[in-house]
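Fold this complex.
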Amino acid sequence: MTGLRFVIGGAYQGKLGFVLAQQNLQATQVFTCGLDTLEIDWSLPVIDKLHLLFWAQQQKGIDSQKYLESHREKLLDHWLICDDLSAGVVPIDAKTRMWRETTGRCSVYLATQADEVYRIFCGLATTLKP
Amino acid sequence: MRILISGGCKNGKSSIAENWIAQAHALDPKQPLYYLATMIPRDDEDTLRIKRHQIQRSHLPFQTIEIERDIFNQISLCNPHGFFLLDSTTALLQNELFHWQDPFEVDTQAGQRVAADLCQLATRLDNLMIVSDYIYSDAFFYDPVTELFREELAQVDRAIATCCDVVVEICAGRAIVHKGQDLLSLMDYHVLNAV
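Structure:
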């Protein structure tokens, strides 16, 4: 598997299930970001919940887009999965607002770098790129 | 045909669903046209919302069937060859998930049950249109109960999407067809983009 595949969509839409089914991968091959994840384990082929990485990095003053740019070479052999946080009310809390915007900007960056981009809706994939 | 329609709020989902099922019914008008109403009104706001929906569909020959819970009992007297519109999964799940006497008590099996019931309904009925709500793309850390509701509703949506022949997302009154494009006629596309 070569190239960067970026998968976006709302929460609980079946994004990870789509990736695992595509590649016949197991859950053990997934690195799942959490609220305290600052670094990605690039040894695994699938990186899930990137939006939580962005939240954690923001709490520590890390610029997530620069982080992704500085790891550009590593991005290129992975499936990256991120929640789309962009379609709700503008959050009243400044930190949440910044997180939402960072996630949007990083998603655009990843989509520009990606060879393939998919959006998942109710478990169904729409190819956004190529 | 079994169809799932979802999308954000107030973007024309219900109108499109009503017109679409009514159009299909007009081609076979001897069969009944049913509106499966799901919302249990809790306050004046709910009552007003229901009234607005009733007025909106008053020009169409719907028979309204209340199916707040226990779907199969409620529709047992309906003609399975009729045309059914269920609006919405969101209200149906709400009825099953929450115990209104105790707002802190939730039934964590509700999503699984509603998903199974609706998929079974889809296999029993010839013409079924289901409306759901897309509530998954905002930036917020919800309380656990709200988060559970989102997760369970998504589970219902994904299950129905598997059982349905056609899955459509509505955005600003326009349709994005995610499944079953080849099953739709020009007339279907006309209704889909007519709001």
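The mean pLDDT of chain B is 89.
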